[in-house]
Design a protein that fits this description.
The complex is a heterodimer of chains A (499) and B (363).
Chain A lengths: L2 H13 L3 E2 L13 E7 L7 E7 L6 E4 L6 H20 L5 E4 L9 E4 L5 E3 L2 H14 L13 H15 L8 E3 H6 L2 E2 L4 H4 L2 H8 L7 H8 L14 H17 L3 H34 L7 H20 L11 H25 L1 H9 L3 E10 L3 E3 L3 E3 L2 E6 L12 E3 L2 E14 L2 E9 L19 E5 L32 H5 L4
Parallel strand pairs in A: 2-7, 7-8
Antiparallel strand pairs in A: 1-9, 2-3, 3-4, 5-6, 10-13, 10-17, 11-12, 13-16, 14-15, 15-16
Helix pairs in contact in A: 2-4, 3-4, 7-8, 9-10, 12-13
Chain B lengths: L3 H8 L10 H7 L6 H9 L3 H7 L11 H28 L8 E5 L9 H14 L5 E5 L3 E5 L2 E5 L3 E6 L2 E7 L4 E2 L2 E2 L1 H24 L10 E7 L6 E7 L1 H13 L3 H5 L14 H8 L10 H4 L3 H7 L9 H6 L6 H9 L9 H19 L1
Parallel strand pairs in B: 1-2, 6-9
Antiparallel strand pairs in B: 2-5, 3-4, 5-6, 7-8, 9-10
The chains are: A alpha+beta (499), B alpha+beta (363).
Chain lengths: 499, 363
């Protein structure tokens, strides 16, 4: 949270409408996403109760577990869910593009031209997929507790998706509430923003309602069923419990079918409003102008998707219950670098995000008042070091001597601060520039900011992501538990209780 | 002259005070500066009834029947046959040397036993328990002094005595999956366990024994992975315990707070809605969005706080430099309002933020 976002919340509260906190959207919005609205049975651990799923708003599939306490019924549900999810995911493995090799000796790389994008209503939906993955990926398709082939396969995909969602720059699994709050600030608190209906009430209130009325309505679970995965306790008591009891006690198949229809209808009514809202959120975000680096991050998602498809076709072991030491260290390394790059990219694409840096004095924007593109200094030999002076009103915290600053318009040019002088509330920053001017002693036109140009300098930079130096799996040092056991399917995993 | 207890009774509209539990006490310490809450809790006012009467019905603490029955069945399982399963966990998972253990049920006898009577029975049993062997005390009745008033706790817990030490055992129905449980649920249980540890310590002190005999590690029993099998973990509660102690002692003396209320004010849920709402405003609240999940009055206080920056959340309010009203923050940001001396810094930052937003969104 920052003062910029805080002010946006104040403005939202005052005007009764959500306010943008970004000028462009930083999330990739797929033109054919898969939406999943799951419900679970209270009290049990991630026991599926129902789901609404599909890649078209007008054509959802409604899956219901009529007797959610029965293990077999749960797996029937997972199997049906797997069919839908896997056929969606497989749909992206047809078209391949070939990329030049990263290093000279490597083969050219291949990756899929598109990747799946799954939307869930909220972070609870992400957790649902994570647990669903844990629950199903170790199941076996042969032996005593055999399940359909799709079940463990869904488990691996669900685990992969949930893992990707931990990285802020990934767009393969999106929680609608987080996507929306990344772009808009509301006039309520972030706690209340966790309620998708209330959040949407601020962003796009239903006709004839103010944002506040819409948000208040959203808190009534009867008018506005919760977005799940947990159901409303009152719904459990008044609708679900009697229906489940009637199913248990149904004297004939005909009665059972009728009760089951009643239950399906009731559950559908619980999910439909959320289903509609997630699609509405996708539409609203999709209509926003994407940031300049969204494409590049989606390409990285496609890379990872391609890698995972290759992994599944190769060994395809289920992901371990807990990361090994090497994998854990590698993930942490990746996460830090990806986060830093994501923050820099967002700031470069979006003046409002850069504004946060300027507020803290880590960046400044101003007008060039003096420019000497021919300035040289003598080190071991005479070299070109153009100089500029930028006048800014920002609360600068950088000091003379700070180096390695960059302007997003000239990412290959580094600037260091020579002097600062203040007069009449404005600060003049003298900068020495290096790089991006060719090799001679004259800078090509346009390579040095000209007088009157608006520039922004910050410490942010998008750096090459080194893969990091980590020992191979079988070289894990004893300080870190030694090499982990290779994966071997265990009967106990396949037999694991789910009750 | 009315004494404190009589005043508190009149405040809740006569009748018995609402019973506290670890959840309400743990929640209470989260907002110790709220006078409204301190008075209502000390008096044992029926807050859900009051909230409903003033048009803000609440569903706090309401669980699904499915969750309740699952919780009960798990607990029954763990405690069945004289806590056989529980003892196995203590021995095998925690490595506690429990050769055999007695089981004492201190639950209500139902024969018109008063709460204080039951408390005395719990105290006597815990005090005289034979040392050396393990003893499990089920359903002990404990009490804590909240703002100078006794709150009786009837925890669903087992106090376990091993050697000289007492342990609090909490049975919860959220799962531990691959050794990891939901952090917020663990945090909530740990705070609640700290309430029990404190109450058990206070019981021992009253019996003239060393409160240090209560272990600062509680035993958390949860379902393992996706199954009904139980697993036990030792959790250190020193931190929440210290916070709880500090905040309970900081909670102002209730008598002093009562003086702030006009003598005729009561929070009787039977009062007409307007009158009751009027009475509530006599005790100042300190709303923050966290209240919505912790206090039955949250929704009422939020409506009351409309127009203030408190409803946007604590961090937002801090980011705004502590400015109270939404309108003030906006007027400072746009320069329509000249800041007073204490708001100079806040106004400067707000004007800067306003300039950045206008600049970026205009382009």
């Amino acid at each position: 949270m920052s003062t910029l976002t805080a002010l946006a919340r104040v403005q939202a509260a005052h005007h009764g409408a959500a306010q943008q906190i970004c000028t462009v959207r930083h999330l990739h919005v797929h033109d054919r996403p898969l939406v999943l609205v799951p419900l679970t049975l209270a009290g049990e651990t991630n026991a599926p109760l129902a789901a609404m799923v599909g890649d078209r708003h007008g054509n959802p599939q409604v899956l219901v577990v009529p007797r959610p306490r029965l293990r077999e019924q749960r797996f029937v549900f997972v199997e049906r869910l797997a069919n839908i999810v896997l056929s969606y995911v497989d749909g992206f493995t047809d078209d391949v593009e070939t990329l030049p090799a990263k290093r000279k000796d490597d083969e050219p790389r291949q990756r899929f031209t598109d990747a799946p994008q799954v939307w869930v209503p909220n972070p609870g939906g992400v957790e649902y997929l994570r647990l669903m993955g844990r629950m199903t990926r170790f199941r076996q398709t042969t032996g005593d507790y055999a399940v359909a082939a799709g079940v463990p396969q869904l488990g691996k995909w669900a685990t992969w998706l949930a893992e990707q969602a931990e990285y802020p720059d990934s767009s393969v699994l999106v929680a609608a509430t987080q996507a929306l709050t990344g772009f808009w600030a509301t006039g309520q608190s972030s706690l209340e923003d966790g309620n998708l209906a209330a959040l949407m009430g601020w962003i796009a209130p239903p006709a004839g309602m103010t944002a506040e009325q819409a948000a208040a309505t959203a808190e009534d679970p009867i008018l506005c069923p919760p977005a799940g995965p947990a159901t409303d306790p009152q719904f459990d008591r008044l609708v679900l419990a009697p229906a489940l009891r009637d199913l248990e006690e149904a004297p004939s198949d005909a009665v059972r079918v009728r009760v089951q229809e009643r239950l399906t209808l009731a559950l559908r009514e619980q999910m439909q409003p959320t289903w509609d809202r997630v699609w509405q959120a996708i539409g609203l975000l999709g209509a926003q102008q994407p940031g300049g680096s969204v494409e590049q991050r989606w390409a990285a998602d496609r890379d990872r998707f391609s890698d995972f498809v290759a992994y599944l076709r190769d060994t395809g072991h289920p992901q371990a219950k807990r990361d090994s030491a090497v994998l854990g260290a590698r993930k942490l390394h990746d996460m830090e670098r990806r986060l830093a790059n994501f923050e820099a990219q967002r700031a470069f694409d979006d003046p409002l995000v850069m504004g946060e840096q300027r507020m803290t004095g880590e960046a400044f924007t101003g007008i060039v008042t003096w420019s000497d593109p021919l300035r040289t200094v003598t080190l071991s030999r005479r070299v070109l070091r153009p100089g500029i002076v930028v006048e800014t009103e920002d609360p600068l915290r950088l000091v003379a001597g700070d180096a390695d600053l960059r302007d997003p318009q000239r990412p290959n040019q580094k600037a260091s601060i020579l002097r600062l002088s203040e007069s009449a509330g404005k600060i003049s920053v003298s900068l020495e520039l290096q790089g991006g001017t060719g090799s001679g002693l004259t800078a090509p036109p346009g390579s040095v900011p000209a007088v009157g140009e608006r520039v922004t300098y910050s410490r942010l930079q998008v750096s090459y992501m080194s893969p990091g130096q980590f020992p191979a799996r079988d070289q894990t040092p004893w300080t870190h538990g030694g090499p982990p056991q290779p994966y071997a399917p265990a009967t106990s995993d396949a037999a694991e209780d789910w009750s | 002259m009315e004494n404190t207890e009589q005043r508190l009774s009149r405040l809740r509209g006569g009748g018995d005070p609402e019973a506290h539990n670890a959840r309400t006490i743990a929640a209470m310490t989260r907002n110790p500066g709220c006078v409204r809450r301190a008075i209502m809790d000390a008096a044992g006012v029926d807050k859900p009834a009051v909230a409903a009467a003033v048009g803000h019905p609440t569903s706090i603490g309401r669980l699904s029947d499915f969750a309740v029955s699952r919780g009960i069945s798990f607990e029954t399982r763990v405690k069945s046959e004289g806590c056989a399963e529980l003892l196995r966990l203590l021995r095998e998972q925690l490595g506690l040397p429990v050769p055999q253990a007695h089981y004492e049920d201190l639950g209500s006898t139902g024969k018109g036993e008063t709460v204080s009577g039951r408390y005395l029975r719990s105290k006597a049993m815990l005090d005289t328990a034979e040392q050396g062997t393990g003893t499990l005390f089920d359903h002990p009745l404990l009490r804590l002094s909240i703002s100078g008033v006794w709150a009786y706790l009837e925890p669903d817990l087992v106090a376990f005595q091993l050697g000289e030490k007492f342990y609090v055992i909490e049975i919860k129905s959220f799962p531990v999956i691959d050794g990891v449980a939901d952090a917020s649920k663990v945090a909530a249980s740990v705070t609640q366990s700290a309430v029990y540890v404190l109450a058990l310590q206070s019981l021992l002190s009253e019996a003239g024994r060393d409160p240090g005999l209560v272990s600062h590690e509680v035993i958390l029993v949860c379902p393992k992975d996706f199954s009904n099998q139980a697993t036990a973990t030792l959790v250190d509660v020193r931190k929440p315990l210290a916070a709880l102690r500090r905040q309970l002692s900081r909670m102002d003396n209730i008598a002093a707070l009562l003086h702030l209320l006009p003598a005729n004010v009561t929070f009787d849920p039977e009062l007409p809605a307007m009158e009751l709402a009027q009475a509530l405003t006599q005790a100042s609240a300190r709303y923050s969005p966290e209240c919505l999940a912790a206090c039955e009055m949250g929704s009422f206080c939020r409506a009351e706080a409309k127009g203030s920056t408190a409803i946007l959340g604590r961090t937002v309010r801090e980011d705004l430099g502590g400015v109270d009203a939404v309108s003030t923050a906006l007027e400072l940001a746009t320069g329509r309002l000249q800041p007073t001396k204490d708001l100079l810094q806040a106004a400067h930052v707000l004007r800067l933020a306003q300039r950045m937003r206008t600049e970026a969104l205009a382009r």
